[in-house]
Amino acid sequence: MGPAAYTEGEQFQRERRTLFAHAWLPFAASAQLAAAGDFVSHSIGGWPLFAIRGDDGVAHGFHNVCRHQSMPVVEQTVGSCEVLRCRYHGWSYAKTGEFLDSPPRVAPNDLREKLSLNAVELCERDGFCMLRVQPRGTEPPRLLLPTSRFATAITTDIDANWKAVVEALLADQDCQFVWPLAFTAKAEADLGIMRQVVPRSFSRTRIVDLIFGANDPTDDLAACRSRASAAKAAAETCQRARAEALAPTPSDEAVEFLRNVALTTPTRGSRSSRFVMQTLLERWRVGALSFSSRFRNS
Q1: Which residue in 273, 260, 198 sits closest to 235, CA to CA?
Q2: How far apart are CA 37 and CA 287, in angstroms?
Q3: Helices 273-297 and 252-264 meet at what angle, rounded to 10?
């Protein structure tokens, strides 16, 4: 897993197929879907998805892809609607994903064809919704969210591969990592944070900090934004180091994380995971020695 895994799309596409398609993806706090029609959307690992609260109180997850010409149905990150309607050609859907109608000029030829939105698996528990693109038998992880009420979300976009972002965030001893894309922070007084990592492309990642506070957290938001900015700077520094093969040997937590990535995204004709990790660590050792030599000679 050399620099190309952080700077080119091939590894990201492999992660899309073998990791993000099968993993439980952290998606939204239940409180973000408080009322019928409330929705949250993300593009995670190349999968455009959204979750919406139905009239029956049940949350549903779907591919954010209209069945007409594959355009997005939902274009806001958060919002609310009575009917899901694609703005491009007017196809509309119920909150359950069922096809409702369309303008006559773009009406489907055969209404008997299954035209509902393509659903994804959604599990809601402990005040949080998790999505999975392709079902498997594993249960979703327990996130242990703060017990205080949901207050707001802070979004930070980062120019880095998602693996560099996770590695940088693993350095925060106050956060607990939940494989593969979530961190829960230790509650501080009446403030709690759940951090989502949203891989948008091989070079762009978003972190979404869900803020929970028993009281009005307005006074704490500046500190939360500062913390997010520091995470962005650390991740982009890590990205540059990984891209140039100059990063120091990773922490034990980062080694374990990258080992799991390698195990879940095997390359065609790859050898054992032990060989993969030995090669990875040797590259880091050589890169660290090279960096140290450059530093001494500078």
Answers
A1: 198
A2: 51
A3: 130
Round to whole Å and give the CA distance between 125 and 178. 15
Q: Is the pLDDT of residue 295 over 50?
A: no
d(CA 151, CA 216) in angstroms, rounded, equals 8
- Report pLDDT digits (tens) over 49-101: 999 999 999 999 999 999 999 999 999 999 999 999 999 999 999 999 999 99
CA distance 21 to 179: 14
14 to 5, 184, 268: CA distances (angstroms): 10, 27, 10
Reading the block at residue 144, the tokens are: 């242990």
CATH superfamily of domain region 25-140: Rieske [2Fe-2S] iron-sulphur domain (2.102.10.10)
Model pTM?
0.86
Task: Say which residues have a Cβ less than 8 Å from residue 213's Cβ, sequence separation at least 6.
Answer: 148, 149, 151, 190, 191, 192, 220
What is the rounded CA–CA span in Å between residue 156 and residue 19? 23
The Cα 115–Cα 71 span in angstroms is: 14
pLDDT digit string (tens) for 267-278?
765 543 444 445
